[in-house]
Amino acid sequence: MPPFYDSLMAKIIAHGADRPEALARLRRALNETRVEGVATNLAFHRRILADPEFAKGGVDTQYLTRLAQRDPALLEG
């Protein structure tokens, strides 16, 4: 991969009969994803999927602000 790669190397999309099923499939896909040689934000997305507020649905544009307030380590590294 060249040093000036497109930050969108891949997109993962999951669907299911309902939100819980789709989230479970997305969690599995993220857990099975392996990327070597470049930094990724997989851990960030796993943390979001582990959040009960996100799982419940109805999040808005302030969701990440609220999550960072609850989990300041989210913004580290």
What is the topological layout?
Blueprint: H1 19-32, H2 42-49, H3 52-56, H4 63-70
Mind explaining what this structure looks like?
Helix content is 45%, strand content 0%. With 77 residues, it is mainly α. Helix 1 (19-32) runs antiparallel to helix 2. The model has no long low-confidence stretch (mean pLDDT 89).
Average of pLDDT: 89
Number of strands: 0
Overall form:
globular
Q: Which range does the strand content fall in?
A: under 5%
Uncertain regions spanning at least 5 consecutive residues:
none
Helix content: 40-55%
Backbone CA Rg: 14 Å
Structure in a nutshell:
The protein is an all-alpha fold and 77 residues long.
Which descriptors would you attach to this protein?
4 helices; mainly alpha; 77 residues; single chain
